[in-house]
Amino acid sequence: MPLVDWFLRHSVTMWLLLQSFVLMTFCFHSATTFPKGCYHAEEDGYKTFRCSSAQLTEVPKDIPNDTNKLYLDFNQIAFLPIDAFRNLPVLLELDLSHNAIVRIESGAFRGLSEHLHSLDLSSNKLVSVNKDVFSNLKAKVNLSSNPWLCDCRLQELIRTVDLVAGSSGSIVCDSSAKEEHVGKPFL
Questions:
Q1: Strands 162-163, 173-176: parallel, antiparallel or unpaired by DSSP?
Q2: Which end of the chain has less Cβ packing within 10 Å, N or C?
Q3: Where is the secretion signal located (predicted)?
């Protein structure tokens, strides 16, 4: 009789533990679920996170921190907040091309200075960017095909950024204090 008594007392406890385990499994599963249209894969030996054409309006929060290449191209991201990529210590390539980015906060790329080799911001809606946004970055940056305001701030920015070879000719003045510069390459 003591064995049956012990079993009945502990079976309720076991049932509650099992139920808690099942609920935790569902919670952890949903926490690692990627946004629709995104997937994590290994490509050519690099851990890649692709969210190309996923209709994103912001940088996803749950990007795996072992990601080497991040593709957020062809989305509707308009703003890059401070620390947008802070949990990505081994990121080598970041593609943000073909979005609607109009504003990048200083510190958006904080934490990427050591490893990032390539940053693509082409074909966005950048008019002006503070040069501090790219401070300490060693990456090659593509800023082409944006509606740039050609002024002293853009000149300071271009001096501080290591541009992708051949992309400087596509940094075209969409507006300028001098009308004769409009529609012409900045450099």
A1: unpaired
A2: N
A3: 1-33
Tokens of 44: 């050519």
Structure tokens at 135: 């401070």
pTM of structure: 0.81
> CB within 8 A of 17, min separation 6: which ones?
none
For tokens 């095909």, the residue is 145
Cα(152)–Cα(24) distance, rounded to whole angstroms? 55
The amino acid occupying position 139 is A
Q: Is 185 helix (H, G, I), strand (E, B) or coil?
A: strand
Long-range contacts, stretch 163-166, CB < 8 angstroms, 24+ apart = 164/118, 164/120, 164/140, 165/140
Which segments of the chain are extended strands (E)? Answer: 39-43, 46-50, 69-71, 79-80, 93-95, 103-104, 118-120, 140-142, 148-150, 162-163, 173-176
d(CA 144, CA 174) in angstroms, rounded, equals: 12
Calpha distance 172→187 (Å, rounded): 8
